[in-house]
Amino acid sequence: MQAKDLVQLAEQFGSPLYVYDAAKIQSQYKRLTDAFSKVEKLRINYAMKALSNVAILQLLRECGSCLDAVSIQEVQLGLHAGYSPDQIFFTPNGVSLEEIEEVSAMGVQINIDNLSILEQFGTKHPNVPVCIRINPHVMAGGNANISVGHIDSKFGISVHQLPHLVRIVENTKMKIVGIHMHTGSDILDIEVFLYAAEILFDAARSFKELEFLDFGSGFKVPYKKDDIETDIEELGNKLSKRFNAFCKEYGKDLTLIFEPGKFLVSEAGYFLAKVNVVKQTTSTVFAGIDSGFNHLIRPMFYGSQHHIENISHPKGKERFYSVVGYICETDTFANNRRISEINEGDILCFKNAGAYCFSMASNYNSRYKPAEALWLNGEGHLIRAQETFEDLLKNQIPLPSLVASE
């Protein structure tokens, strides 16, 4: 997409606005499947928590993707978007037995990540095929909040508890059809990923009726020029060879599953916001925009960096700005960032805004959530309208009788 296209969309749909480039999502999907083309059975489960707009789910379904859901509501969204139950994989954490049973009754593959629920479910439903999430105790990921495979993580069943796990399976006679792991996000070291894969292979040898192995995801994407990213092609080459060798050893062609979220949609996303005010203080020039961490919380939550461009005047002389929001707390998107000279009314574009951006938006300060648009075949399509005051009031129940009596 070009800057003029983004400016046009901001004028057409207003700001703040999320825009997603369909072509980038499609090319990322193809890049991943091409990297693992030597695997006989490959399945991609898009981690829809990254961006769950129904139009995006439909676009990925057309690419051939399945879904990874972490809540029953995500499962329902997937079904609404046209996915069949067997195309959805349920990987929750810390949910109740009742939620797992309800999703299982829909015909969706469930993934259980703790011994307590595993034993309860296996006792009640021994004939329902189950996947088990293993915690490999491998530290990976670009931030503590997104590193989920280490020893202190709440996710998964410790690989050191494998004997206990096997005993539960034997006692309940339940059928284990898959083993799953996810070490974390922003993985750079392929050797760490391959090391964790060996732990998964070792665990898989304890189960004789497996149909698939799910290696999670966590592939890093570049956030700025010349940034480091996961070498998907190298990983595909090395892991494909090792996976195929394991299948031969296991005596069966298993399905290799990945559940990418950020990798597929992050670089396709742009967040557009208008500059409300340029404020000079004794030491800083602030560019205050018509948004805040209610719309884009990642820089404050993860310390993530989103490249910011002034698309209204991309060729202007660069100056240093601190880009801040309008929330009544400190919500700083960037400190002392070099950006083309900013004037009030300009549109700023935040890159890499496709993953975990709108999906983590809120109504803090009673602000509306922004609109979303999809750039498809050279045209902009509104795929979510900006909220209205009526949306804020929806589901709120006033007490008119109490007010009247007083």
From TrEMBL:
Catalytic machinery residues: 328 (proton donor)
Binding site for pyridoxal 5'-phosphate: 218, 356
Domain of life: Bacteria
CDD domains given in the database record: PLPDE_III_DapDC
Residue ranges occupied by any Orn/DAP/Arg decarboxylase 2 N-terminal domain in the UniProt entry: 23-266
Enzyme Commission code(s) on record: 4.1.1.20
Cofactor(s), names only, from the UniProt record: pyridoxal 5'-phosphate
Record PROSITE patterns: ODR_DC_2_1 (PS00878)
Pathway connected to this protein: Amino-acid biosynthesis; L-lysine biosynthesis via DAP pathway; L-lysine from DL-2,6-diaminopimelate: step 1/1
Catalytic reaction annotation: meso-2,6-diaminopimelate + H(+) = L-lysine + CO2
Subunit annotation: Homodimer.
UniProt xrefs under HAMAP family: LysA
Protein name: Diaminopimelate decarboxylase
